[in-house]
Write a structure and sequence with these properties.
alpha+beta, 2 helices
């Protein structure tokens, strides 16, 4: 895990955000990932160069 952050949002409700460095995963490992309980809404793999576009400065 690289960082954990709390994101207050009056419109969407508070969020806890986790950012991990999971290393390099094989196609089989990627296809085995599932979110059964719906608690995790999204996963994404992004390059370091994209962080400024995707998050606020304190997370980047």
């Amino acid at each position: 895990m690289l960082t954990v952050d709390w994101g207050p949002s009056p419109d969407e409700g508070d969020k806890v955000l986790f950012i991990f460095d999971g290393g390099v995963l094989t196609p089989n490992q990627l296809s085995a990932i599932s979110f059964r309980d719906g608690e995790i809404a999204e996963r994404a793999f992004v390059a370091d160069e994209q962080l400024d576009e995707l998050t606020i400065p304190r997370r980047a």
